[in-house]
Amino acid sequence: MTSQVSSPAEQADAAVVGEQRKPGGAKDVRRLDRVIIRFAGDSGDGMQLTGDRFTSETASFGNDLSTLPNFPAEIRAPAGTLPGVSSFQLHFADHDILTPGDAPNVLVAMNPAALKANIGDLPRGAEIIVNTDEFTKRALQKVGYAADPLEDGSLDGYHLHPVPLTTLTVEALKEFDLSRKEAERSKNMFALGLLSWMYHRPTEGTEKFLNTKFAKKPDIAAANVAAFRAGWNFGETTEDFAVSYEVAPAAKAFPVGTYRNISGNLALAYGLVAASQQADLPLFLGSYPITPASDILHELSRHKNFGVRTFQAEDEIAGIGAALGAAFGGSLAVTTTSGPGVALKSETIGLAVSLELPLLVVDIQRGGPSTGLPTKTEQADLLQAMYGRNGEAPVPVVAPRTPADCFDAALEAARIALTYRTPVILLSDGYLANGSEPWRIPDLDELPDLRVRFATGPNHTLDDGTEVFWPYKRDPQTLARPWAIPGTPGLEHRIGGIEKQDGTGNISYDPANHDLMVRTRQAKIDGIDVPDIEVDDPDGARTLVLGWGSTYGPITAAVRRLRGAGEAVAQAHLRHLNPFPRNLGEVLERYDKVVVPEMNLGQLATLIRAKYLVDAHSYNQVNGMPFKAEQLATALKEAIDD
Predict the structure, then answer these.
(1) How do beta strands 570-574 and 617-620 pair?
(2) Which of 322, 331, 422, 543 would staple 284 via disulfide (CB 3.0–4.6 Å)?
(3) Taking the CB of residue 118, how many other CB atoms lie within 10 A of it?
């Protein structure tokens, strides 16, 4: 998250840090340092909206937080089935945290499928709130329950709260002119109100949100607000909930500043807008909708006032083709996609390498191959980003580490693309894209100056004294070629994918020239100025944990846990994957063991072994879900002891 201050083991059971008994028989209030809540139900039950609203109120309250939305790829999976379960997990605390948490302290299950799909993740003693109205014989049989788990004793190890959410919601809305089916749709707001009471969340923001969302349907807005208030009142009055909980704001976790809750895709979109403003260039997005990248297209389409132009193309190839054309025309050009789209865009990425034009290719990775797991996360596109083009076509690769870091990673990718005149691949993933955390809004003077100078006239003098424009005459420091805007008098030059002659840019089949151009393009990427990698090693460890991208949170949480148990372990995390930081080889040589956790089958480890001849040990997971801190801590302990 935003602070690296040591904190309690974040995956341990939530600690009760205080208890207050109110006079006159009022309910007890217990203070906790952290809580993990999971909302689960059918994909049509509004679990993502419920979780998002609870998250927004938690962010406004000042807690540190991390979220994990998890939903089916199908637009509407069969109701009441295990494949149709949608969930939203939120971890919030009064201290610095890094992950959505390993195991929920509270599960809100809207039907038997939600209970069965998630019960295996709950530790003994967790609280379970179930919508008893949905536990019908048919619904139980649909997911393979031979007996009702609410009655057969199988949940005796948990604190079970049976609540007829649907009935209570319909009863609360009987004064509204709604059908029963319409009233039942508000049961997620009843559940949100109940949880808001349990954890003392603010309510004003949610009520304002509902009134705004349904402004054109005031009756629906009023019904949802009424259901939300009814859930709150139910918690206050029912005997089943004798205790409510407080989690204090995380006052010490954040540097001073103005914060907001932000998802990775939203942060990335804002980073692209900021980059265009800092470069003083119009932003052009050529894109084709694809999960989980589509939110960036949706968000950027809202910012025409910042000179943003979005083009939803008919396919992936057209999207990147339009973006590359915009780059040729002088825009900060972007195309967004996921792994299958990168495969389709590879030819045009190669063209951008040949043309040496700035282009941002944003890959929000998901599980593969082919269509794979569209709504699940993976880090399996690294080798595709590095080598997934014909010929020698090197491309810089940048990867954010957290949802909020997507903002800074977008600025960094733009810096490299504009400075070195090259396409850049930005590797985020579904975990970062859909997850959220607090983000400190930067001051304008903190943002980098990305302004570029276009070519305005001749840049080369021939032997006879004639001044001409050479489109491939390079800056001696960056090896970048000049960026000439079409229509500038005297700067006409050839464009296309056939090999260019050094300097002149004329078509050339000369073997020696091709060798020179290939080596020059590689040297340009190798020479990109990237910061040295920083190592967190307070104890002089012998084992280094090296990560990249979204594994940062789980790795850091696992390392904290190990250090709390007295183990010496070092940690380093890569943002720049091509080129690697110049000091990476020297860092790796300092350690007896290097462990590389990845959500793939060992792609970074393969690169590290090949380049530095280091026997890097892979720890891999490809189940569509992020690592759990406890799981990583156990694996790292075994590596240390081996």
Answers:
(1) unpaired
(2) 331
(3) 21
Q: What is the DSSP string of 360-371?
A: EEEEEE-B-STT
| Spatial CA neighbour of 363 closest among 300, 315, 316, 299 | 316
Distance of CA 546 to the CA centre of its chain: 19
Helix or strand holding residue 275 (H, E): helix 264-279
Q: Which amino acid is at 361?
A: V
- Beta-carbon contacts of 153 under 8 Å, excluding residues fewer than 6 positions away, are none
Q: Which two tokens stand for residue 236?
A: 């206050």
CB neighbour list of residue 454: distance below 8 Å, 6 or more residues apart: 330, 482, 483, 484, 485, 488
Closest C-alpha to 150, from 538, 158, 235: 158
Backbone conformation region of residue 606, classed left if phi is above 0, alpha if psi is from -120 to 50, else beta: alpha
List of residues 6+ apart from 366 with CB closer than 8 A: 291, 292, 338, 339, 372, 373, 374, 375, 376, 377, 378, 429, 430
Integer Cα distance of 598 and 608 in angstroms: 13
Residue 77 binned pLDDT confidence (cut-offs 50, 70, 90): confident
Averaged pLDDT of the chain: 94
What pLDDT is attached to residue 75? 76
CB 276 within 8 A of CB 332: yes
Exposed, middle or buried: residue 313 (CB in 10 Å: 0-12, 13-18, 19+)?
middle
Does 330 have pLDDT greater than 70? yes
| Residue 556 near residue 98, CB atoms below 8 Å | yes
The torsion angles phi and psi of 617, rounded to 5 degrees, stand at -95, 125
Q: What is the pTM of this model?
A: 0.94
Measure the CA–CA gap between 37 and 194, rounded to whole angstroms: 13
For tokens 């260019």, what's the residue? 500
Contact 612, 588 (CB under 8 A): yes
Which amino acid is present at 294? S
In which band, very low, low, confident or very high, does the pLDDT at 12 lie, cut at 50, 70 and 90?
very low
Residue 364 main-chain phi, psi, to 5 deg: -90, 95
pLDDT in tens, 617-631: 999 999 999 999 999
Say yes or no to pLDDT of 18 above 80. no
Q: For 592, which DSSP code?
A: S
| CA–CA dist 563, 569 (Å, integer) | 7
Contact 51, 73 (CB under 8 A): no
Torsion, Cα 171 176 182 183, to 10 degrees, reads -20
The pair of three-digit structure tokens given for residue 404, joined into one six-digit string: 């909020």
Give the up-direction half-sphere exposure of residue 605: CA atoms within 13 A in the CB hemisphere. 20
Burial class (CB in 10 A: 0-12, 13-18, 19+), 138: exposed
Cis link prior to 476 (omega < 30° from 0)?
Answer: no
CB atoms < 10 A from the CB of 533, how many? 19
Give the C-alpha separation, 179 to 592, whole Å: 68
